[in-house]
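Quick one:
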Amino acid sequence: MFVWTENLDRYQFDLHGPRTSRDSIYLLLWRDFNGGRALDKVTASLGEDDREVLEKLRSQGEAWIVGGWVREFLSGSDPKELDIATNLEPDLVKSIFPKSIMVGEKYGTVRVRLDDESRSGKIWEVTTLRVDGGYGDGRRPDNVEFGDSIHVDLSRRDFTINSMAIGSNGEIIDPHGGKLDLESGIIRCVGDPAERLGEDGLRIIRAFRFLEMGENGLRDLDLELSRAISVNLHMLERISKERIWSEMKMILSKPNSGKIVRLMHEHEVIEELLPGVSLNLDADLCLDYSVNLAIICSLDNRNGEELSNVLSENLRLSRAESDTVSFLHGLRIHDLDPSMSSVRRFRAALPGYRHSQVFGYLRGIGKETSEFEESLAKVPSFKAGTAPLVDGNTLSEKTGLEPGRRLGRLKAWLHRKQIEEDLAGIEEVIPLIDSLNWKDSDYEEWPILSWP
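Output:
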């Protein structure tokens, strides 16, 4: 069967029957108008340094653009990282680019760097064509043999939309119908889904990540892949928590993350990743993955520290990510106080990035933030800045207190009052000492600058 598709500028040949056949093979050939229209399109999307890397590899052998770059290019998006497959073995790639890093030589991968120090520091992953052995541990191939066929190499990849390549003349090599699945919005495995997921359990999470299409909504899971996910959840136990969290961060940073998380729930994937955590799956998510994780877990009755410890154990959060979840989870029991003193403390006590996280979290769990945000927008700059006006030496002279916990706490209390009342000078701050029983009361109960 021969089909001409005008808007895609390509011919399509179905060599083995209709698209419904799992054995169909597709070859996409772009029209070659005006001296190479297809090649011109590809070249225009490559940077100068991208072209240099490809040209140097092709001077010694063959090289193809593969992976996400091809997928994004064919989707009409702006391709970012360029991955390359080649028939050159790692040692030869290293000799062409001496500054390269041999991070995955056993698996044929070299992180290529150009010699010119003035370049942007960009790195290209260049991988030798290969044939994988079995996946005994469900994470990586037991053995790898270098190959010479781009078609065989593409056959070992996870999903059809990732199993395409672009050759030196701009031709699209697509033996598994990835372009058609891209057009149809389908995530489909290369070959048998159960076999693909059995090779690497992380593909379960990756399948959900590739559903994302931004403002165009979501792709659909192929029915066979959907079924395979549900019966292969045990494969997630074999995957490092760091790899899982790396994929989840990408999912939780996109516009349709809420819908994807709900689909993961339908397949019981989220429960597998976060066992025993009470989940909020109907919340409105934002574009900050740490905030979204906190929102999803906002129904859990643990305190912030306890919850962040559980999540760190299950997902290997960084210290900063753990602190964010802990802080935000503590806010679920608070309503925003729009008073000027509270707003001033919010502005002074929290770094700017935390402001957007707070509002994103509270909106996500259904709390009203507009009145507080309006008050924040009206607050002028602090008259004396946010640093304490009274230092420890001055305070010691005024009170006779020796350096220690009581003096430090008194200084912190005065700092809070300075911020809440927006005081301009030390002469306004010092008299406040008389309003506090600083000699005899429990200094641990004196409030210091914090929010909420």
